[in-house]
Amino acid sequence: MEEDTDFRIRFSSLCFITDHVGFHGTIKSSPSDFVVTEIDEQGQLVNKATNELIGKVLPEPNNFAKKTKVDFQSLSFKEESNQEVSTVTGCSDNQNHQSGSEKEDNDGTSKGKEEQVDVLGNLLDEKTNELLNHFACDIKEKWNSKTELIGSSPEFSLGRILDKNQRAILHSAVRQKFPFLITVGKNSEIVVKPNLEYKELCHLVSEEEAFDFFKYLDAKKENSKFTFKPDTNKDHRKAVHHFVNKKFGNLVETKSFPELNYDAGNPNVVITVRFREKTHKHRKRSLFECRDQKVIYTAFTLRKENLEMFEALGFLAIKLGVIPSDFSYAGLKDKKAITYQAMVVRKVTPERLKNIEKEIEKKRMNVFNIRSVDDSLRLGQLKGNHFDIIIRNLRNQINDSANLRERILEAIENVKNKGFVNYYGPQRFGMGRKVHTDQIGLALLKSEMVEAVKLFLTPEDLDDPVNKAKKYFLQTEDAKGTLSMMPEFKVRERALLESLHRFGMTEEGCIQAWFSFPHSMRIFYVHAYSSKIWNEAVSYRLATYGSRVVEGDLVCLDEDVDDEHFPNSRVHLVTEEEESANTYAIHRVVLPVLGYNIQYPRNKVGQWYQEVLSKDGLQTCRFKVPTLKLNVPGCYRQILKHPHNVSYQLMEEHDIDVKTEGSHIDEATLSLLISFDLDASCYATVCLREIMKHD
């Protein structure tokens, strides 16, 4: 998609700090011409192999290990447990049936069953394990014989388990093996009781279905579904709906659908159950789970090619059965490029991630350096990025007859020594012709939720399926119809439309729709607006005062700063005396990125900020959007930056396999191979703009 004229004017109107002539050329002729590799906090390139590879591989976490990282290799899985399996099976009536759970869930559950049996056998002593089995069988026998349980509900103690990870495993392992039982934590003791809700459900559906439903409920696998057997009796279906919603309505929701290939004269209808988004956090069992269990985190390096990062995350989330917000990363990366970046995903084991390697290769993605870690990543948790770039079709600026090679070498050395204006790059604002991400961010800051949704779904003047769907939505506000038109790969658009279909195109409905995006994506739009204002502010600052450091400027007291996250205490307001004495150099000057915890310059630049905010209707904005859980503290950004470790080489195009048949080799066919490092949050396209003096 070509850039819009308005944005080309906005970006080309930004100023330069160096005075060389520059040259013309083409970047990103193909993704392989622009390779970005993240540099971690230790200064290592993330595409290098790490010694901390998988090591201990955890079992699939869709059962008891959902939020627990445990050294399962320390558990000895013995063949003797086979006898126990047959004993337990007799009590549980779990005859390897395929119930209404999705097939992939059943596969994982049945695989996990043997592991859970072994876990019980290894974490409980032989006597306790045997007594637990007898207790379970006794409960089932009483229920099957229709004998009422007299007096208070019977219970069985597994004893005190001091290790909280083992307690977490036992809680879930017991419930997965015996869904007709519940477990209760009393200090460090685990007590087992009959699950009376299980018994109640057995009056409505088969015991087989009840068994699988409670296993599904306890596994709490996000994005999974459970389906009861087909039912032609409307009143009976209504009773099942009522039971599930009354008992577990804060956790799951139910819907009825016609069975595939049904007879229109006598339709079979199935009830499908799925977890409500995020609400599984509030169910009763989560009290001890939050206390006792530890979330699984798996780190990896993601390589992607010509793929937007949020699209990549959406695809990975679908394949892994999680949601995009379960992924964390240190920074965003270009689309039209080959990029390497560190990632961490929650609730997914290293083994599970390895299992999708082949599938994601089709989407031009690879994962490697897979390993278990203790926590997620946060934005900015990197030292910077390394770039390997090819600039093709090199030529002189218009009306410049100087030697091209000399112009190129002069430009690179000039920027190495003097730096470049540290603008946010054009990719920060999107390449749409009609709407940019900063416009959506402004609408969110003004709490104009419906307007923000409409901006997000504004079509371009193109006739492809995506823009046809967007055009249809703006004309009709028919979310369901638009959803049927929107291609599957448009993960963000589809997530938004699904929420709009569910909640409606009202102010409250649009708020819920924005929550279909992870927090990092919601805040991205607000940051885009802040970035636009910062770009305009630094242009105004340089046009007004040039390279002089003047009274009222803000400077960073630290000499070496490689990110934007330094506190207010390290930001100093330049005095009249310091201006006269030339105390500070221009590379120490910073400007605020909008937020509630920053100070403004006390000169013409500070006045400019207030005028712009007033013009945009934000004069009273506190940079908090409570309805979307967005808080924007702001930060400070140096107006100048320098590339590090710069190396370059001029090559004739035939040396890098791009010579066309019969072409004549002269200076016009030169290509530049350039490599350099930039600090976090700096843009290679902006650095190249300063070098080339060309957009």
From TrEMBL:
<keyword id="KW-0507">mRNA processing</keyword>
<dbReference type="GO" id="GO:0003723">
    <property type="term" value="F:RNA binding"/>
</dbReference>
<feature type="region of interest" description="Disordered">
    <location>
        <begin position="84"/>
        <end position="114"/>
    </location>
</feature>
<protein>
    <recommendedName>
        <fullName>Pseudouridylate synthase PUS7L</fullName>
    </recommendedName>
</protein>
<dbReference type="InterPro" id="IPR056961">
    <property type="entry name" value="R3H_PUS7L"/>
</dbReference>
<dbReference type="InterPro" id="IPR042214">
    <property type="entry name" value="TruD_catalytic"/>
</dbReference>
<dbReference type="Pfam" id="PF25094">
    <property type="entry name" value="R3H_PUS7L"/>
</dbReference>
<feature type="compositionally biased region" description="Basic and acidic residues">
    <location>
        <begin position="100"/>
        <end position="114"/>
    </location>
</feature>
<dbReference type="GO" id="GO:0006397">
    <property type="term" value="P:mRNA processing"/>
</dbReference>
<dbReference type="InterPro" id="IPR056963">
    <property type="entry name" value="PUS7L_N"/>
</dbReference>
<dbReference type="InterPro" id="IPR011760">
    <property type="entry name" value="PsdUridine_synth_TruD_insert"/>
</dbReference>
<feature type="domain" description="TRUD">
    <location>
        <begin position="419"/>
        <end position="642"/>
    </location>
</feature>
<dbReference type="GO" id="GO:0009982">
    <property type="term" value="F:pseudouridine synthase activity"/>
</dbReference>
<keyword id="KW-0597">Phosphoprotein</keyword>
<dbReference type="Pfam" id="PF01142">
    <property type="entry name" value="TruD"/>
</dbReference>
<dbReference type="InterPro" id="IPR001656">
    <property type="entry name" value="PsdUridine_synth_TruD"/>
</dbReference>
<dbReference type="GO" id="GO:0005634">
    <property type="term" value="C:nucleus"/>
</dbReference>
<keyword id="KW-0413">Isomerase</keyword>
<dbReference type="InterPro" id="IPR020103">
    <property type="entry name" value="PsdUridine_synth_cat_dom_sf"/>
</dbReference>
<feature type="compositionally biased region" description="Polar residues">
    <location>
        <begin position="84"/>
        <end position="99"/>
    </location>
</feature>
<comment type="similarity">
    <text>Belongs to the pseudouridine synthase TruD family.</text>
</comment>
<comment type="function">
    <text>Pseudouridine synthase that catalyzes pseudouridylation of mRNAs.</text>
</comment>
<dbReference type="Pfam" id="PF23943">
    <property type="entry name" value="PUS7L_N"/>
</dbReference>
<dbReference type="GO" id="GO:0001522">
    <property type="term" value="P:pseudouridine synthesis"/>
</dbReference>
